[in-house]
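Before relying on records like the one below, remember that each one covers exactly one chain. Contacts with other chains, cofactors or solvent are not represented anywhere in the record.
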Amino acid sequence: MLMGEYDHALDDKGRLTVPARFREALGERFVVTIGLDGCLSGYAMTEWERLTERLKDLPMTNRDARAFIRLLLAGATEVELDKQGRILIPPRLRQASGIAAEAVLVGVGSRLEIWARDRWEAYQESVQESFEETAEKLVDFSL
C-alpha cells in the first residue's frame, strides 16, 4: 500500500526521485498518466492492467466516457527507474500538472500521485475544512 508524502525536486532533465518505499510497491517499471484534481497518477503494472480492464466496460456511446479514456490513455507513459531511483517525467505531463521544479509525491493506497508543490498546498487547503464532514459521509470508523 502506498502512503505518505515526500518532497523532491526535479532535475534539469525532468527526472524525479521516487522514494524507496514507493519503488518497492510500484516496481522497476510503472505507468504515469494524467490524474485527477491537477496531479499525475502512477500505477504499478498490475494496478494499471486492472484499471484498463475496467475502462473496457465504459460505454463508448457516452461522450464523457470517451473523453476520460482518451485523456487518461493518451497521457499515459511507461516509466522505468534508473540506478538512482529516478523516473523521467515527460514534458507534456510536467506541463499538464504544472510541475516545474518542486514536486510532492503522495501515496494514496493503490496509486502514487505526483503534484506540483503549489497545487498540492492549494488542494490541501481547499479540502481540509470539510475533511471531517466528508469522513462522516464516506467512512464508518466504528469498531
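The two ends are 22 Å apart (CA to CA).
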